[in-house]
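Anyone up for a design puzzle?
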């Protein structure tokens, strides 16, 4: 078992309290009535599934019940950071691949 940091509760909690909800930072179409069926379908159904660093939406289902974002490495399941909705990630695929944030950001959102 591992512990995930909830940015709203400001504490580490057991992994069973959290549930992933999909890709983070997906912009809703500004004018749904003027959006084409293809664009609306892309928004509703198609998500990125990268091998490596990925930003995901999670919910603290058994705790504060708030949604927050997680930056996770899909190859290792390592959570690199957690941050509130509306904030921007400090870890990106580019920063990890260049090594600038890899050493400082590894497992900041997880406690063994």
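Challenge accepted. My sequence:
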């Amino acid at each position: 078992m591992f512990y995930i940091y909830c940015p709203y509760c400001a504490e580490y909690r057991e992994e069973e309290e959290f549930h992933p909800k999909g890709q983070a930072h997906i912009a809703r179409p500004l004018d749904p009535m003027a959006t084409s069926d293809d664009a609306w379908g892309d928004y509703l159904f198609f998500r990125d599934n990268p091998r490596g660093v990925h930003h995901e939406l999670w919910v603290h289902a058994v705790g504060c019940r708030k949604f927050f974002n997680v930056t996770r490495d899909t190859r290792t399941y390592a959570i690199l950071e957690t941050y509130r909705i509306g904030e921007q990630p400090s870890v990106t695929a580019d920063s990890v691949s260049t090594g600038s944030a890899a050493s400082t950001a590894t497992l900041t959102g997880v406690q063994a």
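A detail worth pointing out: The domain at 3-25+41-111 is CATH 3.30.2270.10 (Folate-binding fold).
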